[in-house]
Structures are given as C-alpha cells and as structure tokens.
C-alpha cells in the first residue's frame, strides 16, 4: 500500500450514481461516467493489507484483492489487470453486478466502512479494456479434443473461455438468438450495458470459441448427437424454472412472471421491438417478491413510465445493521436493509405512496387477485404476516393493480427442451442436476455447472463454477490438472 495510514485518513467513497431524475429517463448505467477513476487509487489505498484477508475467502473466485488494491494504489494498472484476470474471466461483469460478499468480509469492515473492493475491480477491468491489457489469448496449440458447452450465461462463457484457452475446440450452444444468458435478457441495461458483454464475446470469438445460437439442445439438436460428436459436454443451462403463486385469480390476464416481462424490455433496448407488449407505461404495477429480480422489474417499470409501482416483500423490514448473533462478520448478511439504485429511484420519485418510502411493502403476503369483466387483473389483496408467515388480523388491504409481476425465484433448469430426459440425467430432489465431486453427472462425459446444478445463485458463483467445471473437463480429457478450480460443487457462501 502506498499510504499505510490510508484507512485512517481517507473515508469510503463509492462510485457516484447519476441524479435520479436524469437516470430514470434513460436506460444507461446508473453511475456517473468517468467519476470512478479519479477517486479509486485513494480508495484502494484504504486496504490495510491486514495479513489475513477474509475478503479473499468471501469471494468465490478467490480474487487476489489485497494484491490488486496495492497495485491500484500505486497506479500500476497493467499488473493489476494481470492479477485480476488471473482469477476472474469477466471482472467488468462482477464489478457492476456482484453484491460483493468480499466487502462484508473485509477486515476494515469490523469497525469501519469496508474498502470499495467492487469499485476497484470495475475500475481495473474498464482500464484494462481502455489500455488494451485484455487482448484475446488464443491457445498456442490445439489438443485435438472437442467440447460442447450448452448455455451461454456466465457459467458457460467462463467454462468455454478456460477450455478454449487450454487448447480444446469449443462450441457453445445457446437456445436464445444472442449469447449471454441472464446477463442478456434478464439483467437490465441500467445495471450493466450490453456492450460489456459484446466486447467479451468478441474476445472469445477471436480466441476460437464458436457460438451456435438459436439452437435448443434437446429440441433442435439431439443431446445424444452432441455426446457422439464431442469428447465432453458441459451443461450450463441455468435455473429458469420459475416459482408460481397459486392464489385465486392467478389465471387473470395482466399477471406475468418477471422473466416474461424483463426479456421484452431488454429486447426493446436491443432494437428487436418498438415497444414491449407488456410495457408498464401508465399502469399500476405490483411486483410480488422482494429480491433482486423484483428490484430489476421495479427499475424497468419506472423507466417505462408506470403510474405507480409497489414491491411486496414477504419478510419484515430488515434492520439497518447486521445481526451480530445470526450473521456476524465476516459472513454476508442476508437480512440487512439495502437500498438498490432502483429502490432509490422509487423512493425519490414516490412511485408507491401507500408503501414504505422505497416502494416496498414488507411482511406482505398476497391473498388473491380480482379482475374486471374482461378477465383482466385490476386489484391485489394482501395481508400482513408475522415471522411465521401467519396473517395478522385486521391488516388486509387492497392495491390497484393492472400489471402484476411475479418474482418469486427459480427452482432449477426447465425441462421443456427435453435435454434432461434425453440424457437420462439424475436430478436432485430440489430440481437441480445431480453431479459428483468432480462436476460429472451420471452420464459419462457429461458435466454440469452453474445455476443448473447449484441452484439459483450469482454471477460470481457462476464464473467460479465455469472455471471449476473447465478444470474438471480438462482433467477428464488430458489426465492432467492444469486449470485452476476455485470452488468445489458443494462449496457454499461463508456462514456461521
Ligand atoms: C432478473 C435477474 C437479475 C439478476 N441480477 C443479478 C445481479 O445483479 N448480480 C448477480 O450476481 N446475479 C444476478 N442474477 C443471477 C445470475 O444472473 C445467475 O446466477 C447467473 O446468470 C447464472 O448463470 P448460468 O450461466 O448458470 O445460467 P444463465 O445465465 O441462466 O444461462 C443459461 C443459458 O442456458 C441457455 N439454455 C438453457 N437450456 C438450453 C438448451 N436446452 N439448449 C441451449 N441453451 C440452453 C439459456 O437460454 C441461457 O442463456 C440475476 C438473475 C435474474 C433472473
Ligand atoms: S467478484 Fe464479487 S466477491 Fe469477488 S472481489 Fe469482485 S465484488 Fe468481491
């Protein structure tokens, strides 16, 4: 570290967001362009080089955080980019989208605000692209082995990049028309603009990875055919089977799953559609589900010009500080009040006058929907619940609702394409693909990784899964342990 007292003299400063009134009128990233670089070296200098970096373990990728903090504080951007890319294929994705469990585990966070690790990561990644420190790295020689990766989300992309760079001939099969998985059609551009994704895809193509889009394995091409054609197959198909809300009135029109709604809004941004057929413009929108997917619906509905937007969360309003008994440092606290950019917008624009200031109604459980004579939803009935989810008497209320979005999470890979059945894959009771300690499924030569096997997770875990399954496949193909494996299939976030 350039200044050993940096953590005593420099307060935490985050990449500032653009004013709400400005950013809610466009779809660009919420951050002030160019405002990160001038502050980031001083912020990196807040790293104490504590000696036992829990941030390291808290990051599923094992990112070498103190090392690149030091390099950034000294403005050695090239070395910082090398150290960052040594453990993370796509730091510009995590630098924007990761909830940063590393910061929850930062030693400084015991009694001070943590180092802005995620911002440092993003600054290094962006600078690396600007300066040309992230060139394509095609393999020096080919192994003669072939691998099919099914699914082009962060898991499939990380696996494909690792295997291509190791010399194998890799084809990525994707049922959508463009690669990227949830980063393409789930996550809105105001969280990560798509040019970051395009740039990485270009790099991967230049390295030799082939992409076969608009090809659903199981439907457009038989899964067994792929097994015959390739020496190994990686299933990275994600967990897109959404959870339902089986309450009276669910069949009314105007009630949609979040992943029916968000892809259409993203397709408008891609130029595929003039307007979204499910646009929230002028509508009273209620989002059922308090998680990040719900927050993405919130930010999208605000930008589409909804008349009002309310988000329902089944959990009680969380505390401002972590509960040191149940979720102590250095674990990532789940139950703590967080104000995402979308909630900040909803708060400042007062999108839900009858809810908490940030548009959320906490401890709220949906009882039923009512419709009009045309069978369209027009209202939602809810009740407040206690910690055991029992209704609290006298708390029933009705919200106007002409667009309802269900954001209740995902149970595992969807079975519609027939892939699971064609291969005869063994599944876990909760609906994910079963695999052994080496990421192998019950079908010889077929491996599984990412949300499809781990269950609904995060980009950082997906990249770690992709790197780890690549190591397992490479070992299967060559017999040697050359590639890094940051996690095992049963690793979980740090917990008490
Ligand atoms: C709306 C939303 C917002 C999110 N926001 C964040 C966030 O801000 N930060 C974060 O860390 N995480 C976020 N997540 C979670 C994160 O996106 C996922 O954990 C991650 O994308 C999982 O990666 P994956 O590659 O395993 O699966 P996916 O990204 O789901 O990719 C799987 C791909 O496989 C393809 N596929 C499936 N079946 C077939 C088939 N038979 N043939 C060919 N292709 C197939 C799918 O079309 C898809 O493209 C979000 C999730 C959602 C739903
Ligand atoms: S990937 Fe996430 S957990 Fe790892 S260093 Fe980056 S922000 Fe932290």
UniProtKB/TrEMBL annotation:
UniProt xrefs under InterPro entries: 4Fe4S_Fe-S-bd (IPR017896), DPD_II (IPR028261), FAD/NAD-bd_sf (IPR036188), FAD/NAD-binding_dom (IPR023753), Glut_synth_ssu1 (IPR006005), Glutamate_Synthase (IPR051394), Helical_ferredxn (IPR009051)
Functional pathway: Amino-acid biosynthesis
Residues annotated as domain 4Fe-4S ferredoxin-type: 38-69
Keywords attached to this entry: Amino-acid biosynthesis, Glutamate biosynthesis, Iron, Iron-sulfur, Metal-binding, Oxidoreductase
Swiss-Prot/TrEMBL GO biological process terms: glutamate biosynthetic process
Keyword set includes Metal-binding: yes
UniProt enzyme class: oxidoreductase
Entry EC no(s): 1.4.1.13, 1.4.1.14
Domain of life: Bacteria
MF terms in GO: glutamate synthase (NADH) activity; glutamate synthase (NADPH) activity; iron-sulfur cluster binding; metal ion binding; oxidoreductase activity, acting on the CH-NH2 group of donors, NAD or NADP as acceptor
Matching PANTHER family: GLUTAMATE SYNTHASE [NADPH] SMALL CHAIN
Name listed for the protein in its UniProt record: Glutamate synthase (NADPH/NADH) small chain
Taxonomic source organism: Streptomyces collinus
Organism taxonomic ancestry: Bacteria, Bacillati, Actinomycetota, Actinomycetes, Kitasatosporales
């Amino acid at each position: 570290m350039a200044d050993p007292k940096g953590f005593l003299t420099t307060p935490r400063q985050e990449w500032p967001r653009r004013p709400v009134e400005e950013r809610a009128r466009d779809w660009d990233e919420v951050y002030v362009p160019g405002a990160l670089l001038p502050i980031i070296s001083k912020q990196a200098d807040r790293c104490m080089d504590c000696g036992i970096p829990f941030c390291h373990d808290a990051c599923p990728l094992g990112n070498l955080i103190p090392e690149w903090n030091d390099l950034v504080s000294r403005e050695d951007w090239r070395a910082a980019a090398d150290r960052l890319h040594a453990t993370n294929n796509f730091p510009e994705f995590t630098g924007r989208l990761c909830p940063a469990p590393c910061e929850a585990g930062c030693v400084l966070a015991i009694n001070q605000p943590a180092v802005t690790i995620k911002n440092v990561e993003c600054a290094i990644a962006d600078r690396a692209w600007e300066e040309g420190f992230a060139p394509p790295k095609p393999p020096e020689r080919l192994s003669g082995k072939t691998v099919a990766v099914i699914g082009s989300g962060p898991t499939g992309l990380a696996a494909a990049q690792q295997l291509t760079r190791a010399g194998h001939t890799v084809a990525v099969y994707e049922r959508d028309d463009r690669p990227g998985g949830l980063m393409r059609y789930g996550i809105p551009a105001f969280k990560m603009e798509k040019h970051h994704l395009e740039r990485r895809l270009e790099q991967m193509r230049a390295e030799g990875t082939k992409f076969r889009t608009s090809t659903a394995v199981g439907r457009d091409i038989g899964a067994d055919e792929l097994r015959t054609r390739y020496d190994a197959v990686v299933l990275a198909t994600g967990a897109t089977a959404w959870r339902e809300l089986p309450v009276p009135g669910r069949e009314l029109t105007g009630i949609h799953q979040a992943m029916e709604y968000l892809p259409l809004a993203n397709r408008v941004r891609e130029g595929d559609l003039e307007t979204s057929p499910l646009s929230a413009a002028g509508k009273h929108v209620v989002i059922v589900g308090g998680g990040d997917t719900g927050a993405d619906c919130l930010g999208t509905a605000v930008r589409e010009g909804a008349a009002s937007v309310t988000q329902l969360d089944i959990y009680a309003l969380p505390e401002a500080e972590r509960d040191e008994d149940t979720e102590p440092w250095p674990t990532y606290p789940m139950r703590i009040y967080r104000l995402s950019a979308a909630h900040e917008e909803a708060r400042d624009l007062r999108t839900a006058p009858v809810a908490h200031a940030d548009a959320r109604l906490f401890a709220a459980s949906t009882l039923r929907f009512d419709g009009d004579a045309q069978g369209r939803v027009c209202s939602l009935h809810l009740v407040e619940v206690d910690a055991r989810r029992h209704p609290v008497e006298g708390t029933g209320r009705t919200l106007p609702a002409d667009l309802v979005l269900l954001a209740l999470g995902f149970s595992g890979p969807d079975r519609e394409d027939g892939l699971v059945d064609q291969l005869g894959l063994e599944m876990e009771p909760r609906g994910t693909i079963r695999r052994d300690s080496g990421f192998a499924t019950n079908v010889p030569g077929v491996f599984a990784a990412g949300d499809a096997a781990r269950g609904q997770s995060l980009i950082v875990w997906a990249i770690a899964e992709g790197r780890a399954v690549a190591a397992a496949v490479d070992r299967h193909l060559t017999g040697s342990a050359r590639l890094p494996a940051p996690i095992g299939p049963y690793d979980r976030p740090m917990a008490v």
